[in-house]
Amino acid sequence: MSVLERDPSIGLLGTNDDDRRVQAALSDLFSGDGTIYIVSGYFTYQGYRSIRDDIVSFLERARDNELILVVGPASDQFSARIAYDLWALDEHDQIKLYKQSRGLHAKLYIRDGPRPNCIIGSANITQVAFEYNVELGLEMTRERTDHPDLRPFFDWVETLVDDSVPLRRRDLFGPVQVGSSFVNWSNKARLLPVRNVALRVVPVLLLVVMLAVLFRFV
């Protein structure tokens, strides 16, 4: 018998109709109280809209509830509309947004408090991840935050927050977000052979520059 069969508090997440979907797991994450950490390499406005009502309910249910987000500030990673909407919702200083500029690619969604819950896997918070991509994730619930199955994830995300900086309105200015995209792709290009850069990365950089401004409205 596998660990998934022995332990009903651990489950797989996917995109297929016969799987428990990532979006449903995120909704359940917000059904509990505590501090929720959201780390998503790509976070689109349509993905955010899918869970916005859950976020609103979470914030309104208890003023002690907090939401901490770490996002990539580049225009192809994060929609400025999300930040503006969250700031508008934040009447009681419950939301903190951070930016991580080092090519953020991690996906971790975790809540402390009673019966803490953790979601980790391949899915970003995007409509494409929720409805189209082949995604795989793991959902786990334990009785306490310091449980050895959960403590490493909390330690990791707390370290990431310490290593990040608060997201400011000036970071969401269109040219600044496009510039962040360019820096990310340039840094990736430095790690590739020169020929690969010339044949593959340079055209991608040009495409990113052309599309990045449009992407921030998606």
TrEMBL record:
SUPFAM superfamilies per record: Phospholipase D/nuclease
Where's the PLD phosphodiesterase domain?
100-129
Residues annotated as transmembrane: 197-217
Name the Gene Ontology molecular function terms of this record.
endonuclease activity
Gene3D superfamilies in the record: Endonuclease Chain A
Q: Which UniProt keywords apply?
A: Endonuclease, Hydrolase, Membrane, Nuclease, Transmembrane, Transmembrane helix
Keyword Manganese on this protein?
Answer: no
| The protein's name | NgoFVII family restriction endonuclease
CDD domains according to UniProt? PLDc_Bfil_DEXD_like
Q: Which PROSITE patterns match?
A: PLD (PS50035)
Native species of this protein? Natronolimnobius baerhuensis
Identify the InterPro entries for this entry: PLD-like_dom, PLipase_D/transphosphatidylase
Highest taxon of the lineage: Archaea
